[in-house]
């Protein structure tokens, strides 16, 4: 028995299968209540508030990227429009559980129809809805169990961020889901935890509970333990996490961490991060009625700079819009596709005060190591506008994310306008292939080994090299040890990833010369499919097999 999906978090995990099957039944259609309507409304609102509080608490416990994701979910649970809908349905005679079910269904359908990032969040609503109904009906809360005997392999159609965020290697050996893609929340959180994960694995939920399997988070293969032992070298790459990133012949490649807040810094340092290549700042803004002041922002920036003295810290300014709506920014009205609408840099131009306040806060803590970059930049004119704003704020190093194909195609002009660029492979793939990041059915298009995506990366790195400016990669593609070698071969000057992936990438680079990385990159570029590109590159990277990667 062998199943294959998309490997999204490297490493090998093994253990007994636990198939998630706990679900909350739909309340009966037309179910009514007896007694006072106001009391029924209070009961519904209490459940919504409890779920929102629990999601926030889980996010605070997990920290980092998980905290941002769960704060956004908590906001959904208490959305004013949703609350009004629940109250209206109760006034019409529906019992609180049924009113909540119908209100969430309506909300979910609206998001699904919006498409893009908001469409991706529709699945999150199902989990919030089920939690609310479980409280109202006294049923078991949905979620992943905690089995104390040994780590187990969690298998599910999909995993809710609320469950994934609070797990660790002590509980889970690996994740396997039938839905999701390389940049889904499950994938991002699995990488942050350092747990091997495979998504878009058809037939996974048909596995027999208790069956012992091996999950390869690099190749995407799921097999029986009896069909092949875990390589003796598996995990060797994770044993020596420190030392500068460099190829076997000494070519330096700084290995940086993607972090979502100060609480992730300790983990990054433990994994040997040489700096921060992507500091997400959304955690400062989510769940607030008003934007944070300069005084509130400064300690969060200073904490990271102090943790990495003399080393680069790249701060991405607020990436608001789409899946990160903020209460203090007026909604732009219905956008048919929010992922293609007013988000990132585009929102700054409508609300320049928010950006100016953030840049001023960064200017107050600026050091020679601080670099600031903007998300969702499409043109050289936008890049120049942001760079000018940074200069006004006293920030000496201004850069932009290359995550829209137009920026890669015209990289020469974009690079000329800034001091550095950083390639965000997650969104670059989504926009290049018109493929929803959360949709398992199109996950193959989002495979970072797609030759067309590598072409866009190559265009950008080549333009940066000609201009003599740094070009890093901060998308999660850098977390794949083999692909990390290819990215270096394409000309990436630094790699940034979830902290857990740093040791394996460091070992992979140390096992190969720059020439081998360049040969692997050229071999990948000449292929027709992602699978062929991966195989061709690995053939030129013999050290991977020795390391069990």
Please describe what this structure looks like:
The protein has 549 residues and is of the alpha/beta class. The chain is built from 22 helices and 16 strands. It has an eight-stranded mixed beta sheet, covered by helices on one side. It has an eight-stranded parallel beta barrel with strand order 9-10-11-12-13-14-15-16, surrounded by five helices. The longest helix is centred in the N-terminal third of the chain and has 26 residues. The chain is globular, with a radius of gyration of 23 Å.
Major sheet attributes: 8 strands, mixed
- Cross-sheet strand order for the largest sheet: 1-8-7-3-4-5-6-2
Helicity level, as a percent range?
A: 40-55%
Instruction: Please state the average pLDDT score.
Output: 86
What's the tally of helices?
A: 22
**Total beta strands:** 16
Low-confidence stretches are 114-118, 229-239
Give me the secondary-structure category.
alpha/beta
Q: What amount of the residues lies in strands?
A: 5-15%
Radius of gyration: 23 Å
Global geometry: globular
